[in-house]
Design goal:
By secondary structure, the chain is an alpha/beta fold. It is globular, with a radius of gyration of 16 Å. The longest helix is centred in the C-terminal third of the chain and has 28 residues. Bound molecules: glycinamide ribonucleotide. Glycinamide ribonucleotide binds next to helix 1, strand 5 and helix 6.
Length: 198
């Protein structure tokens, strides 16, 4: 089998990237291989995680770069990428980008879509919104990426209980541990199976 070639796009700490690297080692991901990590931030700790795992990295900054998306597309094509995973990638991609990779871009979002999602809902803001609304259950969603922010077809979801005394930071950690780090690798394996070649 020729494994699907996976590129992971990151902006920050990269704990979801780490979950993917670990899942590759443990065999949860067996139909795909992370061959490239692209960060739009030069100081993202995710880059160190990739380097420690021997994965090729690229920094493509958005600020002041009118060719931001074109530069990413070029890097993805040079790498012969089959699947793109947005793992804490804090930029919204345009329709011209997403339509080039239909059913090939996955995103992990820290809520049960369609709650607390769309433009402006990212990172801790999502958990702040869930707590201030007062929901009793939240979770995470892995979905395909299309032109609507957080609007593509859902692949996997997992619910997480909200507990008395939760702060956005405590809730973020629980959602990561109990949902994101589990369903992201599972979804990546599901999609990799489709693009791996015999
Ligand atoms: C994760 O919780 C991820 O779901 C979220 O940002 C965090 C990144 O953490 N993504 C979004 O909010 C996207 N809308 P990480 O860098 O440690 O993986």
């Amino acid at each position: 089998m020729v494994k699907a070639r996976i590129a992971v796009l990151v902006s920050g700490g990269g704990t979801n990237l780490q979950a993917l690297i670990d899942a590759q080692k443990s065999g949860v991901i067996k139909s795909g291989e992370i061959t490239l990590v692209i960060s739009n931030k030069s100081d993202a700790y995710a880059l160190t995680r990739a380097e420690n795992a021997g994965i090729k990295t690229r920094i493509i900054e958005k600020k002041g770069n009118v060719n931001f998306e074109a530069d990413i597309i070029k890097a993805l094509q040079e790498n012969k990428t089959d699947i793109i995973v947005l793992a804490g990638f804090m930029c919204i991609l345009s329709e011209s980008f997403t339509s080039l990779f239909e059913n090939r871009i996955l995103n992990v979002h820290p809520s049960l879509i369609p709650s607390f999602c769309g433009e402006g809902f990212y990172g801790l803001k999502v958990h702040e919104a869930a707590l201030s609304y007062g929901v009793k259950v939240t979770g995470a969603t892995v979905h395909f990426v299309n032109e609507i922010p957080d609007g593509g077809k859902i692949i996997l979801q997992k619910a997480v209980e909200i507990e008395e005394g939760d702060t956005p930071e405590i809730l973020q950690k629980r959602v990561m541990e109990q949902a994101e780090w589990i369903i992201l690798p599972q979804a990546v394996e599901l999609v990799s199976k489709t693009y791996a070649k015999e």
